């Protein structure tokens, strides 16, 4: 057996290991379990999927797609625990609306109605709560959705962090296309709707403890129009997913695994603002793993990629949309990055995330 | 990004690759060790190996300061963090390094308060602003980082901030290189010298390598063209039959290093008689501690440390990987029991660790790239 | 860990002579320049930043020389490739 | 003007004051804002209703009732922050499912799908999380609903209290009756589905700091079958509402105000377990204000009250259902209690609640 | 519930009501003061007034210990709670009593740690179990409650628990009754005596009321039949032209009170020369403080108190309500600016406060009951 | 505040003679009986509970006497009412 045979054997063994049923080894929850990377994925699959298992949940998509009577509905939820609550470009209220609207939108649904649950810490300024509620209204108006029911809890000082918001949303799916990472096939094109990482870096800098100044603002926005535009323009849309916790890299890995394809991304093609890159270099992190709250990754039929990007670019939120890669056959289940330098490397799911509490 | 993007040009890389290939003697195998984990990271992150002929092998060296921290020191740090009122701080890289009872995140889950900082000065700032806390900074790193710690201790002393201490784990690069050169099981043709360490210590200290041991060394920058060019310079030396210390990274590294930094280190710190390196065992005069004059800021003196030597896990072959004897994938637990998610060894933790770099960036690429 | 990032000094802080405001791709941070005490750091200079400290001043001439070398090499290689291609076409 | 004329004038002025638009006077959130009484109501109306105002939300019902395509759907959410997380008779997992199922059920909907958002504190034992998820599954199975999507966040130690759960739920309304407090009219009968206060008292005692021992267990249960049985048996069901935070008294006040009627309750008729009464007497609280998590208040056409109670009693969860009062015309907007002693008193909404964090 | 439910029988109530009505002399108005807030609560909670003829008016007295706490004392308590490491404890009734800058909930919202306890012993238990905290118990109440505080202090002393202190606000009932009897603007025909205070002090101390002031007093229990029967006994005395102290509540109140309780109060506490009562102003010898022997447990000595007298809000007429001069609804802000949600005066806070009881239970009922 | 609740002593705690387990409608709490030191409190006795202390022992004979009085009154009233009604029916 040659060295490279042996290496290949080892690598195959690793791939088998990677696909094994996840197991939570820790006895206690750590921040990594909430950071959106591998630990989160493991926790969700080993605890929640295991407990609640049903065919809809198994998709682990942005939204659950439900058939209720004659209607196809999308249902989703997210809890928001961002710190700081107010940051350049938005606040937890914008996130709470846009995040849920986006999970509906990228599922191909027209977002309609939202619920809002507030967990407020004793001592939280009422003026801040009003500010959050006002932002939510603004964002809801912009997304043309309505907050139709809610709930309020107050926890003792020291049992919360100002205000947590959980929204759930319902949308209606008015077409009969199937969307989802498992619809992706070789030859498809991978698109991002705009420059990546603005939100995560903005939050990190907004905490103030890094002493880094910038003019960055969060990209939080509601993507329902952009998603609808893409669906209109490209019949061959395979999937869309908002690149939140875990960033674009995590979405791409989900695609590669669900569709058993290779996703090959051109580093050069990925839109990243210079400031995002600068902050990321200073901190030693990779923008591909940094959260956005107003960008999605879409995979479309390779033949439709130009049309798709043009449609996105016609909308202000998609002005810098770009094809960033292609889908191939092998190595199945992996994301490869062609570096600007001309090399190729793997782009795996992140284990821990340097950015907790970003949404 | 100036001084970065210029050194990532694919066209020039192809040219350099052609020159390197042209320097290869048919039938000869070349093995170069990149001493510094930063280089390991660059190599995998940019896919530099894609430009190298099969006959050149890059061997990953011991220069990842996170990777060489032994388990016992992690345990000591957690022990300090468990003392009432203590806020332990360190660089993000340390958070996932396993001690015998878990890493810093696990410790936090059980009640300690260990936070990442960007700079030791940030730890000092917390101490200044929160006098009720005892802020300890776990200092790690080679000569690159030691001056920052020393400057921070000097400032703490000047300001009289008495709720600040340093848990000093600084190591020095030369004894580690020497240990490798002295190890019988490794044949190397040359070294990529650690670029950022050299900004501090300069290039002259490496001359024992090219002189006594007869191995060429090129101080290398961290962009991919820097690395390729340094390999080219090494190949030239071999071709020419030279064995010298060369400086590829002249835009950043002065031959004489940074005298201020060296002075500051010398003022605040002194060599320890010996120090344990993970996987490499005890190495004489290979680490720094605070001088007696700064004992007030020395966490090792302020807190009674268990200081128990913890044997590395049986399956762990980090020592062999750090010495370049094994490729990461040759470790029996690589990628199965030992993954970035569940690291057994330190080399799987730091992004500069050889195992992590190979697992995260490098695996599969060489043989599969053309498939897609 | 040994991560070093080039940044441009945009301002020496008046109240703290050991601190400089340094710009990296449009984001700015106060960086300690105490280790470059002998070097007379000024706005417009580029420094290598490591854990909040400037470790060395970047030598722009050296950088240019290195780039010139690389470009020369690249150009020669390109010419050769072109020649090769031309010769094939012939 | 006689004394009693003057008194009457004052009282009328007070009623006008009571109906004024609520205003949050506090600058900071206190625990009272989460206790389900007047302060919660004020906060919800002054901040959230004010910000999100729309005709569906304005109902402030257990669920929002939505027309989506040809379907009538109910949508609801609740956040659960109970302490302790595990208590006699259940845990936060049971509450999180049953609470949302019940809000759907009492809206007349058949509960179908739930979402679950977890906000977990760093350091929380994974075993406890699994226990909570398992309870949720149990409760979901019992209620014949599915958890189809979810979200997980982790907050730093000291920024949470073990685990908070927010569920949202969707149900379908398969009849065309209008239910709601404003449907209530004089002559109707008021029913509770079982003994009141078990949950709230159980939680309070489970905290341990009162040193009171009892064999009480929480009444947490899913009421979907009971609600369906009532709808079947009594075409004249006006409204149902689960008597959670704020207890039965708060529900009755909502009815009185929404329908502009007087609700007159017979103290003697209210089912209360002796242990609940004993603990309440010791602590100086009134079971009418203590939360249940498996009881509802229903108002039905007076002529159907016997049939309604019989139908409820056929189900184990309704075995002690009882008519507890009647709806009258005046004094509109008030709840009166005929005491066992033969006197009459007002039964107003509680200002503060001695029981924070019960659900 | 034994000893409770038997005293809530509507049939017997009707019989008593008939007897009472029969005792009314035509054209005469009767005014009885229930001294104790517990009675006020019972009267409204059970709707006792429904059984009384128009000619009998119940006047609410000063016997609600929460209602008589002046704003300055609330401010003092919050001041103590703001000291580092302090956990302030008190009975639930205190939580909403307004100080000049908000109540305990507001203070907690701004960072204090003020918790309700069921018993002063529970506060002591917290102190015992959490030695890092300084646990202060804000003691309020009449003679009913003072023995419990005294017993708790004795136990703390015996166990040597030094992180426990009492902020003593105990008041005594007799000076308050005397102040009312001395006030020129009130005509009363008799008193319902405070049943639970009397378990401690007994019945004899009231004899100055029946003797010197010539007003009959009946020590009354707290169930509705107790109250009705006590009114019946008062009416009998008036009919007979007697003025005596009678004990209706014999099942609980011994004529001589509880000597152990009195001894314990006397051991631990002494009368203050004077004390401010909300709305009533300063009353001599009307409150208790810890004796010098227990100074170690005295929060007033342990913490430097601002001890600023805060004037009651201008609109507040609690004084008149506490003296029985005004009916709650006669206060100009009752039910509009002053509600249980936004109390201006203390009487709107405690469930035993006359304004709260009338607002929560009593309003509207008399004239509207028959409408439904 | 002056809330007092009757409860039945079910047990004197062996390790703490000043504590008794008292039952109120089926819930139980340890109550300090130190203020009844002179009264020989035993299981079966009823006491009045206030903020965790027993303030007095309930005198069952007195309670019965009071009830007898009330019942007598109630019965007399009822008889009168019945008589009144009978007389009306006639
Ligand atoms: S695979 Fe893990 S144990 Fe093996 S050498 Fe690498 S880091 Fe060490
Ligand atoms: S209404 Fe308010 S201010 Fe007026 S007397 Fe009553 S409690 Fe005092
Ligand atoms: Mg999503
Ligand atoms: Mg979601
Ligand atoms: Mg989402
Ligand atoms: Mg709710
Ligand atoms: Mg907090
Ligand atoms: Mg409800
Ligand atoms: Mg709800
Ligand atoms: Mg609910
Ligand atoms: Mg989510
Ligand atoms: Mg906590």
TrEMBL record, chains A, D:
Q: Name all PurM-like C-terminal domain ranges.
A: 185-331
Q: Which residues cross the membrane?
A: none
| One annotated GO biological process | protein maturation
Q: Give positions of region: Disordered.
A: 1-22
User: Which ranges carry the PurM-like N-terminal domain?
Assistant: 61-173
* Ranges annotated as biased composition (Basic and acidic residues): 1-15
Q: Per UniProt, what is one Pfam family of this protein?
A: AIRS
- Protein family: Belongs to the HypE family.
Q: Which PANTHER family match?
A: CARBAMOYL DEHYDRATASE HYPE, HYDROGENASE ISOENZYMES FORMATION PROTEIN HYPE
Write down what this protein is called.
Hydrogenase maturation protein, carbamoyl dehydratase HypE
From TrEMBL, chains B, E:
- Gene Ontology MF annotations: 4 iron, 4 sulfur cluster binding; carbon monoxide binding; iron ion binding
Q: Which Pfam families match?
A: HypD (PF01924)
Which biological process terms from the Gene Ontology are attached to this UniProt entry? protein maturation
The record, for Gene3D superfamilies, names: 6.10.20.100, HypD, alpha/beta domain 1 (3.40.50.11750)
Asked if the keyword Calcium belongs to this entry, the reply reads no
Q: Does the keyword Iron apply?
A: yes
Q: Which UniProt keywords apply?
A: Iron, Metal-binding
Q: Which family does it belong to?
A: Belongs to the HypD family.
Output this protein's name: Hydrogenase expression/formation protein HypD
Provenance organism: Lentzea waywayandensis
From TrEMBL, chains C, F:
Which Pfam families does the UniProt record give?
HupF_HypC
Protein's GO biological process: protein maturation
Supply one GO molecular-function term. carbon dioxide binding
Q: Which family does it belong to?
A: Belongs to the HupF/HypC family.
Protein name, as recorded: Hydrogenase 2 accessory protein HybG
